[in-house]
Design brief:
single chain, 386 residues, alpha+beta, 2 domains, 8-stranded mixed β-sheet, 5-stranded antiparallel β-sheet, 25% strand, globular, binds calcium ion
Length: 386
Amino acid sequence: MNRLPLIGALLVGCLVPLKCSGHGNPITVNVTDGRLTISNGLELSAGFVSFAYDYHEDAYLDIAPGNTQGSTLPGFDVSGMEVNSELFLEIVSRPDFTDPATPIRWLWFWDKETQETAVAPEDPFLRIASQRGFGDVRVTQFASMTASMSVKALEPRASDIGTHQHPFIYLLDDAPTANYGAYGVFARLTSPNYEASEPFLIALNHSLSSDEYADAARQINASAALPGDYDRNDTVDGSDFLVWQRTLGSTADLAGDGSLNGVVDATDLEIWKENFGRAWASAAAMPLAGAVPEPASAAILACAGIVLRCCGVTVPRAKRERTAQPRCSAKRATIASPIVSAEVAAGDGALSTLTTLPCASMRKSSTSAPSGRSACARTPAGAGIR
Ligand SMILES: [Ca+2]
Ligand SMILES: [Ca+2]
């Protein structure tokens, strides 16, 4: 009798749970001044949101039933909420600013092979399904598949509060085989009893290293934000220049690191300058942006132009900062910002307004094939929902 297959199965049965089990770094939910708050994620710098989940080494997609790759991570740790106050996860769409057409995007993909944000081939869908029977949400890259983009996470019961929970299973379509990389959705937490949380990124690891996961999260996050929008208000203006100026040279405060190279430097100022005047917001919240900057912003823009023209990337920081002081005047502005206005549908009937201009550094879509496979063959808890 050949016992090798049996021994192999036993080894898999013993070793796989050790490798694949774990609670990851859960989305830690609390309430501050009546608003839901989140913490414990991978901290992000320049881009749309401040946190990504789940970057724990145990959190990766693996073989699940029904031709899917699945995970029950990220989980949730909830405190501060009233019992039965209800907690929902709402998927949030964003424009893809790496595409000159800035399409509204739901599911994001970072390609392991090219190491860049890309369009995944075969347009796979992601399903986030309640493990408590509260329904699901499904999205493809550029379309929502369910009528509502919100699904209840927890009621929460008394036993849910202060304990670790896995309310969802995340299932990625794997027929045909999904390329390796990170698959992400932006989301926020809502509740009838509290203000919604800030948005965050759920990025699912499909055969990435920890470093690759971090790069993927940063790049997806940056792809969903206006380049140069360093204060995250969907407008590129003088306030963003001030963020850059205040943190110039920093490797710790990276809100102004538009180039994602880990330091706030002259390249980030170039990015801001190239995108000055762009804005994106809901039509109700913001009128079409005019191409003419306000006087104060024009003065700042002039200062920035002088910084670049006179100092360049090799000039010491102190000299750059000295040059960029308010003694600059609008008369010295030399930078033109061509603006093109367009309207884009934000999904679910919401119309949003986009003011944009050509971007020379847009990344290309990728249709590359996978380059490696995960060795773990775990079936996630609660699998079978599809
Ligand atoms: Ca801004
Ligand atoms: Ca930089």
